[in-house]
Amino acid sequence: MAIVLGPNQYGKAENRVVRITRDSTRHEIRDLNVSTALRGDFSAAHLVGDQSQVLPTDTQKQTAYSYAKEKGVSSIEAYGLELARHFVDDVVPVEGARIEIEEYAWEHAVVDGEEHEHTFVRLGQEVRTASITVEGKGAEQKTWVIGGLKDLVILKSTGSEFHGFLKDEYTLLEPTTDRVMATALVAQWRFAETGATWAEIDWNDVYTGVKRILITKFATIQSLALQQTLYEMGKAVLEEYPFIAEIKFSAPNKHHFLYNLETFGVENNNEVFHADDRPYGLIQATVMRDDAPDAGPAWTPAANLA
Ligand SMILES: O=c1[nH]c(=O)c2[nH]c(=O)[nH]c2[nH]1
Fold first, then answer.
1. Residues assigned a catalytic role
2. Which of 42, 56, 126, 219 qualifies as a cystine partner to 152, CB 3.0-4.6 A?
3. What are the catalytic residues (predicted)?
4. For residues 176 and 78, what is the distance between their CA atoms, to the nearest angstrom?
């Protein structure tokens, strides 16, 4: 028996990078949470404490901040690609890099009926996400890009049913043809260079488009289950964007239970609910093309560690 070093990576997690664009009196803001992770042969650092192949996590942090100015943040996907490629291309021992980014949205504050040029109000809505993985040097290099969102809290007050389900001796749930459906949606979509190269993809445009499709489908489908709604949302995204190979959802079913007001002689016609926070149904699904190119390490945040 021998004890050996298994998979490993290292980096700086959660760099809170705020980039203000101030080319005119009207400023813009991009508010990011950036995590870097480098992969390669770092066995000497682990086995004998030799740092000669280790680019410090502090340097990774400094690079993330400097690149926010040097390369700009036109989108989190483009900025993440710049960072990942830099670490792999320019740092000799680095064979792979994983960059994970969250973006918090702000909008210009409205003051006296007009958008203020340098005051912003944080939008309480969803967080935009991206995960970029680059592996290999030179012509062998491979790139995976995932765009996404999380915490998109969305609710419909009708247009949702759930009935016809399996029953056994523990089943209490009553079937319904009219219920509240609500979730805090997590969606992640994997780009593939089919029909478009990375340089041709307008990351911001795709983000806005995917979000619009998700919300539209959630609203307009007469839902028979959250599972069906997720599938239809994913199908619509893949139909719209040929360069998205697959989309993954994780959706807590945020139950709204009709509150019993009978004791008070008060009629409750789907008007008063108890919003339960836990437990919640957790519905998770992937919608994909049957010929989707290999996902490789795209979904693996931590070099086979997770
Ligand atoms: O949309 C739903 N899917 C389920 O699988 C499920 N199970 C449940 O109790 N309620 C619901 N709702």
1. 12, 57, 255
2. 126
3. 12, 57, 255
4. 46
Distance (angstroms) between ligand 1 centre and the Cα of 250 equals 14
Name the pLDDT band for 305 (thresholds 50, 70, 90). low
Each residue's pLDDT tens digit, 234-287: 999 999 999 999 999 999 999 999 999 999 999 999 999 999 999 999 999 999
Mutate to test the pocket of ligand 1, among 155, 162, 163, 173 (most ligand atoms within 8 A of CB): 162
Q: Does the fold of domain 151-306 match that of domain 8-140?
A: yes
- Decide: 302 and 37 in contact? Cβ < 8 Å: yes
Atom of ligand 1 nearest to the CA of 225: 1
**pTM of structure:** 0.94
Q: Tell me the residue type at 122.
A: R
- Ligand 1 atom having least distance to the Cα of 229: 1
CATH class, range 151-306:
alpha beta
Radius of gyration for the alpha carbons in the chain, expressed in angstroms and rounded: 23
Indicate if ipTM > 0.95: yes
Q: Which fold has domain 8-140?
A: Urate Oxidase (3.10.270)
Q: Classify residue 100 as exposed, middle or buried by CB count within 10 Å of its CB (0-12, 13-18, 19+).
A: buried
Separation between Cα atoms, residue 273 and residue 156, nearest integer Å: 13
- Extract the annotated binding site for 5-hydroxyisourate: 57, 162, 179, 227, 253
Which amino acid makes up residue 117? E
CA-CA distance, 41 to 81, in Å (whole number)?
22
